Structures are given as structure tokens and as C-alpha cells.
Amino acid sequence: MLPPVLIVEDDTKLARIVKVYLEGADFRTVQASTIKEALQKAEEDLPLAVILDLGLPDGSGEELCQSLKEMGDFPVIMLTAKSSEEERLAGFALGADDYMVKPASPRELVCRLKAVLKRYERSSSSADNFASFNDGSLILNSLRHQISRDGQPLSVTPTEFKLLLTMATSPGRTFTRDELVTRALGYHFEGYDRSIDAHIKNLRQKIEKDPRAPEYLKTVYGVGYLFAGERDAL
Ligand code: CA
């Protein structure tokens, strides 16, 4: 399943129009009407791109833009009533990839979204950011935080991505749950070891042909997990 475009807009009528147009252009969409909800949705399902309204009930979209940019590298298009040049420039300084002033044409929004996605595709195609395993059947793009299985982009959470990247960087090495908690979750917390099992289970559902007989994420009984994919040579 393709990662979704996250629409952050508190005006329900506008949000619905954006959703209809994006889905008409074959994008999958997820909606949020507050900063809190947007962060939660992005954490659950890392977006392909974000359409961001700047005036939100629980704060400014500018702050949200910064937080989102820390989660992954995806384009953000700001949609706003603010139209002064200064405000537009401030938006770009915060990492917005494009900026549209309301009232905006939904068809133009779709065109701009496609254009920024193309730019991202181009800038992230450098070999350093790619790791390909088992004859190209599993691809990790560390710049865009994306995983593809047999050419299909998968929808993963930021934690799942970090977990897989950590393990795939050292194929064949056994990681203890403790190590995975520290590296993939970025903190150590007593009793959190077992939460790794849930993330591994979800990842297996997404990347393995048969999650019960995993080809990539193998259990090392009594110790932890290892990544058994073979990195493709050129
Ligand atoms: Ca608004």
C-alpha cells in the first residue's frame, strides 16, 4: 500500500475537497484537524507528503512543519490564508517545499504535489541512500524513510523503519532486544524490551512473503533478532 498524503486542515469542507481531488489523482489520504492529531497520524503511518494548513486550533502549522520534518524526509505543501511575502518566506525557511495561498485551486494543488514528489524522487535517487536486498525484492530508502517490497512502497511507522534500518545495516548480526530498544526507539526504558516483539511482528506482516516463515527478520531464540537479507552487489 502506498504511503498516504496527510491532509492537516481544520476546515472540514476544505479538507473534504482536498481529499476528493487527491483521491481522484490516485493518492491515498489521511486527515487531521489539529497539530496533536497530525503528529499522531504521521507517527502511525509515515506520510508520502503533507498538505498543511497554517491556522490550526491548537497552534501554528509552522511549528508542526518543523516537528514533521524531524520524523522523515517528505515534502510539505503549506496551504494558508497568510499571503504576505514575509510570511511566505518564513514558511520556506521552516522547510515547506511549496506554498499556496487560499483560496487555492484544488487542481493546482494536485499538480504542485506531483511536482514536489518528482523533485524528491530525483534528489533521493543517489545510491548512498539506497540499500537493496535479495535481488531487489526489498529496498530501503533511508533518505525518504521508505521501504519497498517487490517494487511496491510499503506503509511503515517511523519506529518500524528505524528498526529495520538498524538491523539491515548489519545483515547476519544478532541484535538483543535491549540493543534494538536503544537504537530504534532511541531511549532505554525498563520493561520496553518486549515492545520490540510487537514492532517485529508488524514489520514481518509488511515485508515477509510468509510472516510465519520469515526470510528477512529471523528470531534468534533466547537472544533477539537478526536480519537475514543479502545485500545486492552491483
Ligand atoms: Ca485553518
Molecular structure report:
The chain has 234 residues and is an alpha/beta fold. The protein folds into two domains: 5-124, Rossmann fold (3-Layer(aba) Sandwich), CATH 3.40.50.2300; 128-227, Arc Repressor Mutant, subunit A (Orthogonal Bundle), CATH 1.10.10. It is built from eight helices and 14 strands. A five-stranded parallel beta sheet has the order 2-1-3-6-7, sandwiched between helices. Helix 6 (158-168) packs across helix 7 (177-185) and helix 6 crosses helix 8. The protein is elongated. Calcium ion is lined by residues 10-11, 53, 55-56.
Could you give a quick summary of the protein structure above?
The chain has 234 residues and is of the alpha/beta class.
Features:
234 residues; alpha/beta; Arc Repressor Mutant, subunit A; five-stranded parallel sheet; four-stranded antiparallel sheet; 14 strands; binds calcium ion
Question: How do the helices and strands line up, and which of them pair or pack?
Answer:
Layout: E1 5-8, H1 12-24, E2 29-32, H2 35-44, E3 49-53, E4 55-56, E5 59-60, H3 61-71, E6 76-80, H4 85-93, E7 98-101, H5 106-123, E8 130-133, E9 138-141, E10 146-149, E11 152-154, H6 158-168, E12 174-176, H7 177-185, H8 195-207, E13 217-220, E14 224-227
Parallel strand pairs: 1-2, 1-3, 3-6, 6-7
Antiparallel strand pairs: 4-5, 8-9, 9-10, 10-11, 12-14, 13-14
